[in-house]
Amino acid sequence: MQKVKGGVQSVDVGMRLLKTLAAIGGRATLNELSEATQLHSAKVHRYMVSLVDSGFVERTAHGRYDLGPYVLEFATSYLSRLDPTTIANSMIEQLRSETNEGIILSVWGEAGTTVIRWLQSGRPISVGIRPGAIFSGLMSASGRIFLAYLHKAVTRQIIKEEFEMLRRDANPLAPQSMEEVDAILEETRERGMARVTGHSIEYVSSLAAPIFDYRSEVVLALALFGFKTDFDVSWDGHNAQVLERAAGEISKKLGYVPESLVY
Length: 263
Prior knowledge:
With 263 residues, this protein is α+β, with helices and mostly antiparallel strands.
């Protein structure tokens, strides 16, 4: 990115130190920051004193520097303004081009899993899905994502009502016990993905992945769908890999940090 002339050099240096501290992961010594930025340690010290005073940096009891409390406030203010749907919409066209499959973007609404964006498959398959449609929580891949990752207090009643309805209808693909429901949701969490093969629509299979925000809360379900006869639903197949990558990139843009990357 080309720099705009007329900037304030001291601000540039301060931001450079903040970015370096963030890249290191915090808890850096003065010498480590000096070496990483190629700035004299005395100059680094002067800047760090000002950054500590501003709240952007704090100094630990062991004399190391870490990101300060105002960084969290600053970041949270920015992240809270991000619209998950807008971020996702900007990326799902690429997902369709990589898979040529249909795409469904859903949120959790008052009635459960609610479609907000739908893109038809590039293959000759026609599915009557429109924004505002409500999916089954237990029989759709998107629904299983929300049931797996939302708090049980939010999903308990919908699970109970759907289970009773499916049992009355004697659907052979439906879970036959609450233990089986729990196993399905546990598998979804372990795989980081849900799949169905003709459960909701007889000839359609689907894979779905969760999208998380900066609070580590699931905010969207992103799904691929296609003909059951030729749609790859394998956990490690091309569709799963591309879907997982896309959901991960959207989550990252929303400020989500996986637990494995938390220091």
